């Protein structure tokens, strides 16, 4: 029987039953920009960076199951313009000061901004007031950089069985919280060995006192741009170390 | 004159409302944003002169609450010309926080290499790019010519060497810090990268030429002095104490040492002072008209206790320079003073080029050392809650002081930067220049540039001094006694 496939930017890409467009693309080594997607977790389609056009409709590649013969546009000026705008909104909603951020060079948000040639934030900065949580002896939480991907929420709940993290608030006031009466990470059973500590695509969950130990030139995205790291993005598993380690 | 007399022009004795105000705003060809105001009476006699630093940025405040390991990378953003100095001063302070009382040999040498690369590039930038137009063309020369492009047209070899000296220093920084500007090489307890053999060989291939050009630069500045000693020896001159770090056995040392103060006659007033206790030696006075504080020696008080820092202080404060060509030049410089300290601001340039030469020679001496390619880069020890890092930045003594709470966040920060130490000296120098050149004369752009020449001699970094970011174009405004603008001059810098 003929292998089912989609046409991704005109290229036939095979898939197995139940795979999403994202799964099929990653398996074929084709990069679709994404932030909240991680192959080890159930997709939720919240960041919208992976928006593609499938049979003429805008859809999230990480949530839509592939169908035989589906025509999918991915790397087009129209879609990349929209993705760039989404990135700009993510940048201005938080406090993303790449020059002094220890995740520079290891950060998916920054890597995508380079990849999609985001040259300015474009929108007015929100400059939200988000104090860091340094209460835990091993881990620093810098909420300034949270993009609400919920990977830590999913990892802590589904893999670690701890539900340390959650989102609170609605709409523009939505924010990441720690599930403790005090709201402090030190008052949870969170541990650096948890999966939730390894999945943050930006610089929220950080190993303390590590800082800038990796020199410029040897950080993940110094070595190759994110679009050429599809294989390692696809190979991420629940027991992997996350980005940047 | 005795130190401290210059305060007489700080505040006009006459009613300021009856005086005519002239502002140089902003001061050009310096790093950052400042202005000079002059108050003149009806006979064009100068009654008040002030260098104001008018912007405020507040690094000391917003570093609070950040994790300590972020500090060396964040605070270096104070400056684009000598960020390495802030990077290293912060790292030195945080070495103490992580208990690294002694760095590994590789880390210490890599940091020194980075710092001497920084001194080389910053001194080259200051002398060739920012100050040489004044010195080569004349203080009152056509404003449109007073820039490095015109220097390149008239003196192509001088400009070329200046640019390439700076480029080499930047390359040293890139290889040790990861980037030419705002790298990440120094981390609390050591460094995050070493040099490969290939990288060292690349630098070694050029260092001979760099030392040669550095020697030429000293000769150039000496020729300028010799051509017009009446100008160079007295322009803006005033007496003051001098302060700097002095290294082991009295050597000139930019990276580490103990504080030494000499009085205006060259006598040692304080020696072997542990920089960790800087707050017992120095206090800062705040004046309502400037965001830049006025440091002074506690023992002498604000009127008598101000002092110069930077090349002129360092070269005369040390007992010797460890590298042969620079030491020979230091001796000649000291001899020029005929037993007395040289206080002339324009002699800063001469001292600065001696330091440039020393930096080049030190880099040449360091590069063959295999420790630069070592793997043992990080040290640690018992944690502490406080750290003080003191270093000699290109412009002078730089102090970083941090307190870190039990959760690893910075709870307080105090920065005393080089230009702040030189606040009163710069004010003093421009008052001397105003008395000598401006009194009773119709002000022109060229005359007012004399004021800026005096400021530039100190190589001030006004951004660092107030932790503020500035713009460069010069706008000069002339107002009558009623405050109306009667003339305006602009220069493109």
From TrEMBL, chain A:
Keyword Iron assigned: yes
Iron-sulfur is among the record's keywords: yes
CDD domains: fer2
Sequence ranges assigned to domain 2Fe-2S ferredoxin-type in this UniProt record: 2-78
Cofactor(s) essential for the protein: [4Fe-4S] cluster
Record-annotated 4Fe-4S His(Cys)3-ligated-type domain positions: 78-117
Keyword annotations from UniProtKB, A to Z: 4Fe-4S, Iron, Iron-sulfur, Metal-binding
InterPro entries reported for this sequence: 2Fe-2S_ferredoxin-like_sf, 2Fe-2S_ferredoxin-type, NAD-red_Hydgase_HoxS_gsu, NADH_UbQ_OxRdtase_75kDa_su_CS, NADH_UbQ_OxRdtase_Gsu_4Fe4S-bd
Source organism superkingdom: Bacteria
Cellular component terms per the entry's GO annotation: membrane
SUPFAM superfamilies: 2Fe-2S ferredoxin-like
Biological processes, Gene Ontology terms: ATP synthesis coupled electron transport
GO molecular function list: 4 iron, 4 sulfur cluster binding; metal ion binding; NADH dehydrogenase (ubiquinone) activity; oxidoreductase activity
The family this protein is said to belong to: Belongs to the complex I 75 kDa subunit family.
Name of the molecule in the record: NADP oxidoreductase
From TrEMBL, chain B:
Protein name from the UniProt record: Ni/Fe hydrogenase subunit alpha
UniProt cross-references to SUPFAM superfamilies, sorted A to Z: HydB/Nqo4-like
MF annotations from Gene Ontology: ferredoxin hydrogenase activity; nickel cation binding
Keywords linked to the UniProt accession: Iron, Magnesium, Metal-binding, Nickel, Oxidoreductase
Organism name: Candidatus Accumulibacter meliphilus
InterPro entries the UniProt entry points to: Ni-dep_hyd_lsu, Ni-dep_hyd_lsu_Ni_BS, NiFe-Hase_large
Presence of the UniProt keyword Transit peptide in the record: no
CC cofactor: Fe cation; Ni(2+)
């Amino acid at each position: 029987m003929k292998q089912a496939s989609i046409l991704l930017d005109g290229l036939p890409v095979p898939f197995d039953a139940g795979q999403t467009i994202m799964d099929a693309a990653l398996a074929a080594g084709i990069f679709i920009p994404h932030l909240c997607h991680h192959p080890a977790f159930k997709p939720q389609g919240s960041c919208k960076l992976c928006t593609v056009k499938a049979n003429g409709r805008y859809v999230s590649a990480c949530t839509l199951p592939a169908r035989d013969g589906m025509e999918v546009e991915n790397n087009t000026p129209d879609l990349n313009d929209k993705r760039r705008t989404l990135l700009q909104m993510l940048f201005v909603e938080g406090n993303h000061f790449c020059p002094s951020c220890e995740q520079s060079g290891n950060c998916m948000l920054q890597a995508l901004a380079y990849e999609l040639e985001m040259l300015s934030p474009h929108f007015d900065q929100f400059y939200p007031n988000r104090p860091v949580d340094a209460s835990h002896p091993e881990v620093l939480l810098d909420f300034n950089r949270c993009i609400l991907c919920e990977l830590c929420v999913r990892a802590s709940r589904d893999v670690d069985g701890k539900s340390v993290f959650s989102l609170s608030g609605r709409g523009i006031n939505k924010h990441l919280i720690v599930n403790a009466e005090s709201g402090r990470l030190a008052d949870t059973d969170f541990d650096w060995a948890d999966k939730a500590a390894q999945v943050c695509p930006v610089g929220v969950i950080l190993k303390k006192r590590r800082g800038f130990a990796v020199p410029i030139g040897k950080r993940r995205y110094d070595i190759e741009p994110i679009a050429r790291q599809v294989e390692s993005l696809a190979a991420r598993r629940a027991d992997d170390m996350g980005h940047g380690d | 004159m005795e130190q401290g007399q210059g305060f007489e022009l700080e505040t006009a004795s006459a009613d300021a409302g009856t005086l005519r105000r002239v502002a140089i705003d902003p001061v050009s060809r310096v790093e950052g944003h400042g202005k000079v105001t002059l108050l003149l009476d009806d006979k064009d006699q100068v009654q008040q002169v002030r260098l104001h630093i008018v912007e405020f940025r507040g690094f000391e405040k917003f570093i609070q609450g950040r994790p300590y390991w972020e500090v060396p990378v964040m605070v270096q953003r104070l400056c684009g010309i000598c960020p390495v100095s802030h990077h290293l001063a912060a790292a030195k302070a945080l070495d103490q926080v992580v208990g690294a009382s002694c760095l590994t040999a590789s880390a210490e040498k890599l940091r020194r290499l980075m710092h001497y690369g920084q001194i080389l590039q910053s001194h080259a930038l200051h002398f060739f790019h920012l100050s040489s137009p004044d010195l080569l063309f004349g203080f009152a020369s056509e404003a449109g010519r007073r820039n490095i492009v015109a220097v390149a047209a008239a003196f192509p070899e001088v400009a070329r060497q200046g640019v390439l000296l700076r480029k080499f220093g930047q390359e040293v920084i890139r290889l040790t810090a990861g980037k030419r500007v705002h790298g990440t090489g120094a981390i609390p307890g050591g460094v995050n990268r070493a040099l490969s053999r290939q990288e060292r060989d690349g630098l070694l291939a050029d260092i001979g030429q760099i030392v040669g050009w550095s020697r030429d630069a000293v000769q150039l500045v000496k020729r300028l002095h010799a051509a017009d000693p009446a100008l160079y020896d007295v322009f803006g001159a005033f007496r003051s104490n001098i302060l700097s770090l002095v290294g082991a056995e009295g050597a000139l040392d930019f990276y580490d040492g103990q504080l030494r103060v000499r009085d205006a006659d060259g006598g040692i007033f304080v020696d072997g002072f542990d920089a960790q206790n800087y707050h017992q030696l120095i206090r800062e006075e705040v004046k309502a008209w400037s965001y830049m504080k006025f440091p002074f020696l506690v023992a002498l008080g604000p009127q008598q206790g101000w002092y110069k820092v930077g090349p002129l202080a360092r070269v005369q404060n040390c007992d010797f320079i460890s590298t042969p060509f620079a030491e020979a030049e230091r001796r000649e410089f000291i001899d020029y003073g005929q037993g007395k300290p040289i206080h002339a601001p324009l002699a800063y340039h001469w001292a600065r080029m001696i330091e440039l030469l020393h930096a080049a020679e030190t880099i040449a001496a360091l590069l063959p050392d295999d420790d630069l390619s070592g793997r043992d880069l990080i040290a640690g020890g018992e944690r502490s809650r406080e750290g003080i890092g003191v270093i000699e930045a290109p412009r002078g003594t730089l102090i970083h002081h941090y307190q870190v709470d039990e959760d690893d966040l910075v709870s307080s920060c105090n920065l005393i930067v080089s230009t702040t130490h030189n606040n009163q000296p710069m004010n003093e120098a421009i008052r001397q220049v105003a008395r000598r050149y401006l009194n009773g004369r119709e002000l022109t752009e060229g005359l007012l540039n004399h004021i800026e020449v005096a400021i530039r001699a100190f190589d001030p970094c006004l951004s660092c001094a107030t932790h503020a970011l500035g713009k460069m174009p010069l706008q000069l405004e002339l107002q009558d006694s009623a405050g109306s603008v009667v003339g305006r001059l602009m220069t493109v810098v």
